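User: Run a structure prediction on this.
Assistant: Running it now.
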Amino acid sequence: VVVLMGAVLTQLFLGGVKAGQFFLTLIITVIASALALSAESYRVERLMAYLDPWNPEHVYGTGYQLTQSLIAFGRGEWLGVGLGDSVQKLFYLPEAHTDFVFAIWAEETGLIGAVAALGLLVWLLGRIWSVAWRAQQNGHLYAAYIAIGIATLFGLQVLINVGVNIGLLPTKGLTLPFYSYGGSSLLVCCAMVGIVVRIAYETAAPQPATEVSYA
């Protein structure tokens, strides 16, 4: 919901919606999110654990995943412990192959590998934005907005997943595109990239000349 709503708000903003309407929608979204967060006790507990995961009340409870993830980052140091030599993935860090795969990658490849992985994702986002910009310059506004929406979906997933892994955001349960295990996630990501490739092809192809009849 967070990712989809973020993509919708981005589309509204770039689509030229009036500032008053945009900020009104943004305020309503923030209020609704706060109400949804406080409606269930387990959500509040997860937020409290995020703010202080090392608290003895949280470290073996709602904050367990985050503390184990931070331990994985600490073990990785600069160059990592080596591919396949992660200790945290041996049932110390839950969901190590999906939500917290970035922490395991950082443990095995270190800071250098983590930066390289993020660099590839940033490069992908840059390419998608360049396709969207070219489509807009050529007058293909619909295609441009689709590419922007796809870039926003990818970007928010990366931002939230990495933020959760390093403790900057509460645990969300979101996959990291092209890294997390899961056939449905990989399939949808590949489909979105395929759409962008088609947009790049359509906007790069010369437009057929229209014949004008004077009869």
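The longest helix spans residues 101-137.
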